[in-house]
Specification:
heterodimer; A: mainly beta; four-stranded antiparallel sheet; 0% helix; 53% strand; globular; B: mainly beta; six-stranded mixed sheet
Chain lengths: 113, 116
């Protein structure tokens, strides 16, 4: 089975721009979670989608948004980029059981200049 | 709110030596616990998980972890470390109750350096 894929792997943007990141989960997985990883704050939960519905959201400003498509692929969008948004963005997929292990993609490294 | 503490930011061991990485969690009910490993510039790879049952769980790459409810700990161990084990290790907890769908809470990570 193919693993979780994320595109693009690297992005460079300037302040004020917006960006869209994509995540394709493992086949059969319908839950997709997104995390932001920075040296200062560590790994922080952004949001989770299941069957095209956002079920959970972390403590991030409204500039961070996401969606999920009927094939379980997910995108996250960050608008009005700030320098502090520079981070590794990781997505993870899991089955639809209430609790199951999450499988992570390689991440998208976003640099905001 | 649940939290995870990894007291050791950086650990250095010699190749062939044993390893123990500490993890303490704060959570009222029975937690669902995980250990992940991350190599530089890569995503997270699941090493092992604890949901219930036997408190000593085996994982990949020769790792094991022991859940101790009385100490709120889930320490990761390996009897003999290989140079390829050098990476950053994260302990995580999942609260299955309420509206915590899909949310893992991670510790700050422990960087493991292996000397030849």
């Amino acid at each position: 089975k193919a693993g979780v894929t994320q595109t693009p792997r690297y992005l460079i943007k300037t302040r004020g721009q917006q960006v869209t990141l994509s995540c394709s989960p493992i086949s059969g997985h319908r839950s997709v979670s997104w995390y932001q990883q920075t040296p200062g704050q560590g790994l922080q939960f952004l949001f989770e989608y299941f069957s095209e519905t956002q079920r959970n959201k972390g403590n991030f400003p409204g500039r961070f948004s996401g969606r999920q498509f009927s094939n379980s692929r997910s995108e996250m969008n960050v608008s009005t980029l700030e320098l502090g948004d520079s981070a590794l963005y990781l997505c993870a997929s899991s089955t639809d059981r209430l609790v199951s292990e999450q499988f992570f993609g390689p991440g998208t490294r976003l640099t905001v200049l | 709110a649940q939290s995870v503490t990894q007291p050791d930011i950086h650990i250095t061991v010699s190749e062939g030596a044993s390893l123990e990485l500490r993890c303490n969690y704060s959570y009222g009910a029975t937690p669902y616990l995980f250990w992940y490993v991350q190599s530089p510039g890569q995503g997270l790879q699941l090493l092992l998980k604890y949901f219930s049952g036997d408190t000593l769980v085996q994982g990949i790459k020769g790792f094991e972890a022991e859940f101790k409810r009385s100490q709120s700990s889930f320490n990761l161990r390996k009897p003999s470390v290989h140079w390829s084990d050098a990476a950053e290790y994260f302990c995580a907890v999942h609260n299955a109750g309420g509206t915590s769908y899909g949310k893992l809470t991670f510790g700050q990570g422990t960087i493991l350096t292996v000397h030849p």
